[in-house]
Structure formats: C-alpha cells, structure tokens
Amino acid sequence: MTTHLPKPLAAAALALALAAAPAQAADSTRWVGTWTASPQAALPAGFVLPNGAPAQLRNQTVRQVARVSLGGKQLRIELSNAYGDQPVTIGAAHIARSGGGARIQAGSDRAITFGGQPSVTIQPGAPVLSDPIALDVAALGEVAVSLYLPQTTALKTLHWEGRQDAYLTSGNRAADAQLQGETIQTRPFLSGVYVQAPAATRSVIVLGDSITDGAASTPNQNRRWPDFLAARLAQRDVAVLNAGISGGQVLNDGMGVSALARFERDVLGQKADTVFVLLGINDIGWPGSSFEPKRAPMSAQRLIAGYRQLIARARLNSLRIVGATLTPFEGALADSPISGYYNTDKDKVRQTVNAWIRDSGEFDAVVDFDAITRDPAHPARFLPAYDSGDHLHPGDAGYRAMAEAIDEAVLFAPR
C-alpha cells in the first residue's frame, strides 16, 4: 500500500532530505594537503648564501608551478605572510593546469577567490586560504598558480629552495596563457595546495632540511626524495607533503625557524597521519662553520633531547612519528665557499645520534638512510653513485634510493 503524506509534510520531508544530502556528501570527503612549501623569512643582507629573489615586487605577476601528490576535482590554495611586517595585497590570483614552463593548459585557467572576492590582503604573520576551486587535476599533476601584486610589496616570506622555476613579469598577467620575463627558483607567498579527497585518504608529512628540500636534485624534474615517494604512494591514496627547509635544524633557527618552533604550523596544522623526521645534520655541521662560526659545538645529548620533544608533541596529537638516521657527510661543502662544515668530532656526534635513533625504540619506526646511502668501503662518505658531488646532498639516484627504501608499513600503523 502506498502512503501519501499531506503536501506540507511532504514538502518538509523533501527539504530535510535535501538539507541532509550535502552533509552526507561532506562526511565522505575531507580537505587534505596535497602539496606544501614551508614558509621562511627572506635571508638577511650579508648572509653567506644569496637570497635568490628580488627584495620587493611592484605591479608584477609571479607564476609558480607545483606538482601535487594526490589529485581531485576541487582545490584550495594557501598563501602566507608569516614573516611580513606589513599587509600583503594580492590583486588577482589564478590557477590552471601547467602546460610546462611558464605556460598553462588551454581551457584550464580558473580565477581564485577569497571569501567571494578576487583580491585579498594577507595580514602580517598570517596565512589566507582560498575558496574552493573547481579544477580537475590528476594525481602527480602540475598546477600553475599566478599571483598579481599591484602595490610595492617587500618580499619577506618565501620558500628559498624551490628547485622549480617561477616566473616574474610586469603588470597583471595572472590569466595569460604564457608569461615572459625573469625566472627565479624561490617560492614567494605560496605555501599550500589542498584537495578534496575521500575521507579515508592518508597523508605523510616529511619534516626535514635541504636533503628533504631536494638540494642538488635536477631542477624542474621533481626528483627530491619525497617526490619519488609520492609517485609510489599516490596510487594508494596517500599524500606526501614536503616540509623540508634548506638549512633547517631541530634546535636552532637558521635558514628558517627550528623544527621545534615550526612543528605546530608545518606538521600539526596539516592533520597528517604520520610525520617523517630527517633532521639534525645542520645542528651538527653549522656550528664552527661559515654559517655559525661562533656557535659552540652540538652535543649528541642536546640533539637527542630535541628529538624527544618532537616525539612527545607527535604522541600528544596521536600522530605517528618515524625517524631517519643522518646521512654521511665527510668532506661536505669542501669545494664551496662554506668552510668548516665537517670534522671528525662532528661525525662522532652523528654516529652517536644515529645509534640512538636506531636502537632507542623511541620513534614509532626508523628508516636507516645512513646504511642505505653510505659507501661500504668508506662509511663516513656517500656511495659515489648517490653523491651529488658536494658530499652533503644526494644526487637524483641517491634520492630515488632513499624513497625506494621506505616501506608503506613503516609509515602507517596497522588499521
């Protein structure tokens, strides 16, 4: 028998059903970070390395290319003014699928809005998140994000080690199919891309230094070790986020604030399932070098205490934490303007720290990058095939070997 509700009740039932449908759809998906570039302050004048970007932008468009980890049909971007002391106004912002270099794919350009508006002002110290953007992007696809800065804007927040060309040109060219102009390899203001993904999607964030940031890898080819890992895991609905900062340290600020200082923003803020930590070589190598000639040597005990703080904060937030041993560095930067980065006493600290990482049981799991990358005939050095040539950073083959050594079971606890 068919039962007919009175018209007012039927209308009310339909309204309730329609109201419930979006909530049910929303429950089946969530916003997941699919790419990140940890914000840093611009390097100070007189620093041993160049800043690699103009001191200010005015009436210029900057286009940046980012390879996402997971794809989707809805994206959001995040911009950061973390280290600015003045508001930053974005006059226009666009996103498209990258067509290679400074080009975008025809028909894929989308204007980005913020609270329904085409422009946004980012307050000092703050990030902004865009509205959702309807753009179909495949896993491991590249997007081009174009930002127009109409006012004279000091470039105080960036990501230094881009390993990816960004393009600068005059005027508002954010929607142009191709840009012509200056090329830089830093990342101004762009700090994140998010994708609407199934609720069961998992993610890993890698907290690291220049070895994670991809220093010495081939530019524009996505050959950092987290890139290789992302390529392996994307088919399993696992996002891999690279929170490496070149010059990064566990305890001290360097080319970016310490891991202890940025853990809340760069790790916990991503709501990931696992944090993978490869940090500490700069804590050991910087003191007494051209970077920090007056700093006292690092002790293994101090560095271990820093790791324990990261572990405690991860556990407090129900976050799995995986540690990696520190890679060999004998002869590091010897042929560069940087002096004093390596000595045998520093390597003894590294060996002590590595023994603790391997044997203490304090991390949830461990990946032994030292064992994977060292030369069996000379364990204080990289295997020649894995060495970029500066004896501190792996080359592309070394980064690939590191990623291939990571078992998915190490990254995630059994469900």
UniProtKB/TrEMBL annotation:
Residues 206-401 form the SGNH hydrolase-type esterase domain. InterPro entries: GDSL_Rv0518-like, SGNH_hydro, SGNH_hydro_sf. SUPFAM superfamilies: SGNH hydrolase (SSF52266). Transmembrane segments: none annotated. GO terms for molecular function: hydrolase activity. Residues 1-25 form the signal peptide. The keyword Hydrolase applies. It comes from the Bacteria. Keywords: Hydrolase, Signal. This is SGNH/GDSL hydrolase family protein.
